[in-house]
Amino acid sequence: MEITLTVNGRAQALELDPRTTLLDALRDHLQLTGTKKGCDHGQCGACTILLNGRRINACLTLAAMHEADEIATIEGLAPPDDPGALQAAFLHHDGFQCGYCTPGQIVSATGMLEEARAGWPSHVSPNLEAEVALDRSEVAERMSGNLCRCAAYTGIVEAILETAEQERDVEPREAAE
Amino acid sequence: MKPFDYVRADSPRSAVAAGGARARFIAGGTNLIDLMKLEVEAPERLVDISRLDLGGIGPAEGGGLRIGALASNADVAAAHAVRRDYPALARALLSGASGQIRNKATTGGNLLQRTRCPYFTDTSQPCNKRRPGKGCAAIGGHTRNHAILGATSHCIATHPSDMAVALRALDASVEIEGADGSRRRMTVGELYRLPGDAPDRDTTLEAGELITAVILPPPPAGAAQSYRKVRDRASYAFALVSLACVAKMEDGRIDQVALAFGGIAPVPWRDGAAEEALRGENPGPEVFEHAADILLADAERQGDNAFKIPLVRRLLKAELARATGTGDQR
Q: Which of A131, B20, B25, B28 could cross-link B105 (Cys pair, CB 3.0–4.6 Å)?
């Protein structure tokens, strides 16, 4: 079947078998191989992308279902020569070893920080209605859909917390201007 | 994955018209696509309902809350009305799956997700739920996650949803559109069926029927609500045992109580006799033990899940002590 996918702001027409997952469409048909295939069952998070700004597992959805959607992959977050704040923080805190899970970690963390900004509670939040205060346990809980087989979790959590703190420091200044 | 025809529905009516025994509705897809990859599910037609206007969360007639079948698990857990009035539901949703899956999985799909019994998803093993009449490889196999109540010699699988357990305790209903366009409502308790000798049928839905919404009754005023989940990992794991508790005290006695358990049965489990034994009583360890005796009277262990029997008892006692202010306040 013929479908048009809008990925990183660019609409592209594709001829696909209806069985094609969004992950396979990105990797095999659009050559966007930054999004990784790990388990292909939604357990590892290596395939995390943003669908209309929200993080999802690209392996657990069909490309055919996403004609009208905005899809963002790791390639769309920041150009290679100008890493975003999260990417820089992952470098600084050594948030990886082999790097295979890293695109999924960074895209997932991008979506997760947006969820925290919107005030969504998590399983470990003591109060469902209080403001979100990200700490190690909140980040670990909110990122539990992303596995790292090298177990670089210490650096991953540090990088995400640092990025969250930077945003918190920057936001009031921007508001004052 | 087996080939299928893909059709997009533009209304609930066109969806049910395209549905049927050999078709599957797809919305979030987080469970169905996984099962299709494994060829546990092989529908001839996939009816995409994800674009239907069924995602709203708003007041229901009579003071409750109406949650559209396509509302994502994340949106329901984040909705202020749910956090404020139905915290057991918010807690249950937040304890399930991962951030990515909660963003995609829908309310209707969560209700209709299939068991995570490993013999159900392993197509090299006999399974009466997957292929009726073939036998059950779980019986006598690895049974850590299996049922202690409501199981039969045909099937010992458990229902995996956390959300459905909270909805059961909150006396929620589902709104259903039938193949002929008719509408009906039933409680979440009535939605699920025990396996009996037909474990392939998880629910009482007819082929082609579509869940369009979940309806919560008005929040129980003055009642404490909780959802507590015991699992093998701190996050992103199914329940070994979970408990949704809604309890209200009046003059030092238990006035109302609803206890729904997950992880122990083929359906979200409630026992009216155990709840009746608590109503009107002064809360305390002996009363809680008595309710647990009633609840567990017919409990049957498999090889690896004997621990669930004392675990259910302890969870019941701990949550009731907390809800009634008579014990550990954590």
A: B28
